[in-house]
Write the structure tokens for this entry.
Amino acid sequence: MIVRDAKSYCAILLDDNNRKTVARMHFNGITTKYLGMFAGKDETRHLLSDLTHIYQYSAAIKARLRELDPAIPA
């Protein structure tokens, strides 16, 4: 996976391919942090009160990886 910085978010990409976005990290302010998760092309933002709360979304991240590349084991 590759992390690519943009002006408003940090994209987490599979195989350094901007068409294979796994998730986006939105750090809009000092206290506001969001994790953007994808289902198809639709992004859903989840508020993170602490960065360690990203681990709550590990199953969704793994599911997204398998959606993008079916060869990734379960």
About this structure: The chain has one domain: 2-68. The mean pLDDT is 87. The beta strands are 2-5, 10-13, 21-26, 34-39, 42-47.
